[in-house]
Sequence to fold (211 residues):
Amino acid sequence: MTELILSLDVLDRKQAVKIAESCAPYIDAIKVGYPLVLSTGLSIVSDLADLALPLIADFKVADIPNTNRLICEAVFSAGFDAVIAHGFVGADAARTCVEVAHRHSGAAYIVAEMSHPGATEFFHGGVAEHLAELAVSCRADGIIAPATRPERISRLREIVGSKAIYSPGVGAQGGDLDTVARLVDGVIVGRSIYEAENPGAEAERFSRIRR
Fold:
């Protein structure tokens, strides 16, 4: 089974909870990023807790080790189950995120390659491969790889082996759900679901990958 992860990038607390509730039967986790947290604060975790779904903090943490530690401690103390971090700041900084996550019985995922068109400016020439290797050496729980470039997922899978690969870029960014679902452990979908007239129905449509 491939997991379906809702990327909940809305700004309003009530709207976020309403969307999450309608989608809950059809998804396996909720990814919360800066847009929602900057609008509502970390307390949004409490609002979503009753859904009993894993909550992933997509903060793409990218700072010096001590600052990464402070951010991740705040993330897990608030009740998140996982965090997404960048690896390009170095192994020591990435390892700090992993260590904090594991100390809290949580998970940490390293961005190997992003899904938007501009990502190819820097995530090329072996950079993504190096970041995937870093994720393995730092004992991260998995990586983020682009649904918009499935051939890159296949290449990165060769490096990370059985570690989880979560993939954004399906739907609004053009990634094909069925193609990507065969390659990854989880597909991350945002706008195609939360901007739909009926988010729950749209989540149900995407949830065919869970069967």
Summary: The mean pLDDT is 96.
